[in-house]
Amino acid sequence: MNLPVEIIHNGKKVRAVSQDLSPMGMFIRLSPPLDAGTILQVVISPNGQRHVMTGQVTHALSEVEARTLGRYPGVGVMFRDPMRPSEQQFLEAIARLLERHNASRTAADLRILVADSQTRILERLSTALGTAGFVVATATNGIEAIGACLSKTPDVALIERDMPVVDGLHVLQEMGRHGELASVPVMIMSSNATDLARLQAFQLGAADYIPKPFTVLEVILRARRWARAFQRDTERVVLRGSLVEVGLPTLLQMFEQEKKTGQLAVTRDQLVAWIDFIDGKIVRARSSESDGDPRDVVLKVLDWKHGFFELSAGTPNLAKVEVETSVTHLLLEHARLQDEATRVDDPNADDRLL
Hints:
The chain is 36% helix and 29% strand. It has eleven helices and 16 strands. Strand 2 and strand 3 (25-29) form a beta hairpin.
């Protein structure tokens, strides 16, 4: 949800656009970004009525960091607790905007993107899905598919794995870099149905994998199921990507600064780990490799240099908090352990530094 805003800082006014709006704060597109910790005023004017709130910059994304994550450069701003009636009115205006935005999506208006380079398959699926009640957008290659998704977010996407220009897996990766597209269920269709092909698609974030040939009815039923799940789901994927492009320490620091609540799933080869957050603090960590102490699990996963990650927003379902520690503390401990391991492997390292 994009919203025009005005920022007041050090007596200067700057017009900008917000996204990722919530009752507690917002991300504001801004280049260059302000420093973390900066106090500012945020002004919104829905329906011409001006509302002002004081906030604090919790984190900043530079041009390089934003490009890596597929986001805009800018700042995350957390609203302070209202101290006067005008600030309470600001929060009430935000709540009304969010309510109207959520109500604008109706269950009857299911939108699907279908991407395939074979026009006969595209026409067949488009006609059948349109008759079944979907609003259908089509694309014949990966670039068109990405553009169609960015133009208007679909409720579900059906994408051929092997397409010219940019293939379906690259489309899947690119969607994961955009907050508004990361949670869209993507069904990959392909004549290649090997276990390796399926695993690769699921690691990149695919919701479903449909081998060719298939029946149109099968596609309709699966598409409707995923589209409705997308509209109901309160624990949506908000970010996906590769650890080669964005390291796990950078991700964890960002989640701490943004006070994220949700679950981070990390996969590498045949291994998977889950790290749960509440308000930016790690409260539980599990791994298919180990059932040990949550802190040990995180420290071991921090050694992973390749793999894939997926962050789902929503309150973790856990009976009790197993560990409550800051990301900063764990990163410092991990750095200390790496340093000790280096000294053991190379006992002359200190001598060379002198």
